[in-house]
Design brief:
This protein is mainly beta. It has one domain: Jelly Rolls, CATH 2.60.120.10. The protein is built from 2 helices and 13 strands, in the order ββββαβββββββββα. The chain has a 6-stranded antiparallel beta sheet with strand order 1-2-10-7-12-5, with no helix packed on it. Strands 9-8-11-6-13 form a 5-stranded antiparallel beta sheet, with no helix packed on it. A two-stranded antiparallel ribbon has the order 3-4. The longest helix is centred in the first third of the chain and has 4 residues. It is globular, with a radius of gyration of 16 Å. The termini are far apart.
Length: 178
Amino acid sequence: MIFIETKLKGAYVIELEKREDDRGFFARTFCKNEAFPYDLKTDIVQANMSMSKKKGTLRGMHYQLAPHAETKLIRCTKGSLYDVIIDIRPDSATYKQWFGVELTQENYKMVYVPEGFAHGFVTLEDNTEATYLVTAEYNKDSERAIRYNDQAFSILWPVAVTELSEKDINHPDFTESL
């Protein structure tokens, strides 16, 4: 696994270290020992997946409050998506900054999203699937979100957002009090 820190401290793009031969390749997609030097949370308690039927489907920007805050490891397993994270840690040097990266079934990249970040993505093609490994179980009372087009962040989505849940459409503007 190759860990590439993003401009947002503690968040990483992870590339696979492939061992290839005539059959294809083998690579680790998760290894607690390889994550240890980067001080990453690795106590995975839940695995989730999503499937989005249409290009332009947006899911996000979601997070959970402590004590149910989640660390996530996201990978696109079919199709392609543009994954975005926002640093909402008030004491962080990159507070209110965002980072985006394309995840595809071909590039095998993953995003490590630490606690204190909002997360979401938009699909770049039809029938896109994503998997998420998370360190906390979903807790409805701790669930929060930021509207995908909140001017506090001015995220540059690479495609038009055409599909949104009613819930995601109605997320409030970001407030400093989490």
